[in-house]
Amino acid sequence: EVQKLNQQLEDKNGEIQQMINQPPYEKEREILRLQKNLAEKEKAQATSDVLCRSLTDETHQLQRKLASTAEMCQRLAKCLEEKQRKEKENSHDQIPTERSNQVFLLLLYNETSLQALICNLQDENRMLKQKVAHV
Known about the structure:
This protein folds into 2 domains: about 90 residues; about 40 residues. About 95% of the residues lie in helices and about 0% in strands. It comes from Aegotheles bennettii.
């Protein structure tokens, strides 16, 4: 193992000597190449940071939308329950009017569409989290 390490040391010393013996213009060319690589990597990192921030902001925005939509669904459900309870108290097992049926169907439709919207937002949120994790 010592011989192996000595061989690696000799190889590295050879590379250093080769770099030292290079003409100045080749050293400058190597420095410029390394500086160019560094600049490209810094630019890629900055782009990645901006994308991450953008995705994070979008995720927070979608979470707020989801929360407000869920809150709206809860309010609509409470309203529907109250309306049904009042109708029961008022009607005492009478046949509901066509108007109350329409309101009930409208509320049911709104609740169903809001649930679909919530599912869509949750899917989009999950995909954005996957993108953020990937970035």
